[in-house]
Amino acid sequence: MSPNPPTLITARDSATKLPLLNSSMKYALIPEPTFQPTSFQGLLSSGDEAMEVVKESLGMRKEFKLKLKIGNPSVRRLISGAIAGAVSRTVVAPLETIRTHLMVGSCGHNTTHEVFQSIMEVDGWKGLFRGNLVNIIRVAPSKAIELFAYDTVKKHLTPKAGEQSKIPIPASSIAGAVAGVSSTLCTYPLELLKTRVTVQRGVYKNFVDAFVRIVREEGPAELYRGLTPSLIGVIPYAATNYLAYDTLRKAYKKVFNKEEVGNVMTLLIGSAAGAFSSSATFPLEVARKHMQAGALNGRQYSNMFQALMSILEKEGVAGLYRGLGPSCIKLVPAAGISFMCYEACKRLLVENEEN
């Protein structure tokens, strides 16, 4: 027994010394493998104070928070982004499938309900998740690269406390554009393969078969068909998306005097940012999907402008926004879930940097 109690001592033979809350404040030696906090309530004085001493001695807290220590901030961001992308895309995979069919008219139906019924009749529930594995393989690294690039560029462009910004454009919009371009260039072939496997049902056995046949029959360059409109579309989309998210996040902190933004509010802010950016750039997304679908239904476009004009001529302005409803239903929660998972994962991985 020791009359001089330290806060926490690990003794020999894997035992822990815990305080006895009596007048002498001596310690009891307890074997750690068999330790249970509730077993010692009889040794301690009654009341919450006694249990708080035990909890503090063992480093316990009232709220359990799982954290994994990863020292490298770049690795933290990459892992967080990959998890955020995989989770968000899996949750909204059925809506993504319906949206793609509506955009290119592959089912011959014009409403979300009709497309849903057609998919269920032909493929069943698995048809709603067709191409989702490819989507995860594409989105996980894409989001990892995108969010890593965004955080890195924004950190370098954001002025330090007391300094004035050297650029007239918000740092978050520039960082968002760079992030979008970076991820698109790295993962675009997977996006095209996902679209082909989803839309051209029965043509390709799987993702590998689609890759081999496209390269052999149409050439490697076909893997990047539609890249130009995709890049043109991703720049304004990513710029507005991240600008809206960053602006709303800062406004929330200022108005409610909060140092951190909770998961629910992050979900709402991310969803609002996604709704704004997707609506503003949707026509370019439609043109990109038409070009990626290739010669499906006899439609072939050499560039984005031709695709846009052809859609306008055949379907009018409404054609440029075909699928906007299900697109927002899919993109809005996907954006919110992605941001929420990203911020939560950074906290889980012990993210101590200023967001």
From TrEMBL:
It is found in: Membrane. SUPFAM superfamilies: Mitochondrial carrier. Signal peptide: none annotated. It is a multi-pass membrane protein. The keyword Cytoplasm does not apply. Its main location: membrane. One of its GO terms (cellular component) is membrane. GO terms for biological process: transmembrane transport. It holds the Pfam family Mito_carr. Keywords: Membrane, Repeat, Transmembrane, Transport. Solcar repeats lie at residues 72-156, 167-251, 261-348. Belongs to the mitochondrial carrier (TC 2.A.29) family. This is Protein brittle-1. It comes from Trifolium pratense.
